[in-house]
Design brief:
Elements lengths: L1 H22 L2 E3 L5 E3 L3 H5 L11 E3 L4 E3 L4 E5 L15 E5 L12 E6 L2 E13 L2 E7 L16 E9 L1
Antiparallel strand pairs: 1-2, 3-4, 5-6, 6-10, 7-8, 7-10, 8-9
């Protein structure tokens, strides 16, 4: 009897997980509108490989990364990208030359109003205004409410230094 009860408990748990996953792409806000929510795959997908092994040279007294079109960045700790990025982290960024270089999983920096935001890309697509990326802080409950246009991207994070 205990075995049957355990089987049904597992079956109910699995059914709940499947049903939850089926509806997890959308959230209903307090105003009743449906908004895009991040899926587990979009949050856990790692950044793409923008630096090849042949571009990294580890010597006894230094590390040399041969990479064009790079910039160095520091962060203001808002908590939105914890635990990946914090106050004392620094990053190496590349400036993408086309939207095809920006992929789901990448951490990008972009201009929004008077700020530079650094969040993870959870979706890319096309709409009536052209290419866009949807972003979300790893530690934020919902995606950013605005699409990021290619011209607003200031870099793709390719290395984080602590």
């Amino acid at each position: 009897m205990k075995l049957v009860a355990a089987f049904f408990a597992i079956l109910m748990f699995a059914g709940g997980m499947l049903a939850g996953n089926a509806f997890s792409r959308f959230d209903i806000s307090l105003t009743g509108e449906t908004v895009l929510a991040a899926t587990p795959d979009s949050i856990t997908r790692p950044p793409n490989d923008h630096i090849r092994p042949g571009q990294i040279h580890v010597l006894n007294d230094r590390v040399i990364i041969t990479l064009n079109n790079t910039d160095w960045a520091r962060f203001t700790d808002t908590g939105s990208m914890l635990p990946v990025l914090g106050t004392h982290a620094n990053s190496l960024e590349i400036m993408p030359e086309s939207p095809t270089q920006v992929q789901v999983g990448d951490i990008i920096s972009f201009r929004y109003l008077d700020s530079i935001i650094i969040h993870r890309v959870i979706e890319t697509g096309q709409d009536e205004y052209g290419w866009y990326a949807r972003t979300k802080g790893d530690n934020s409950p919902l995606p950013d409410p605005y699409p990021v246009r290619f011209q607003n991207i200031t870099g793709i994070v390719v290395g984080i230094f602590y």
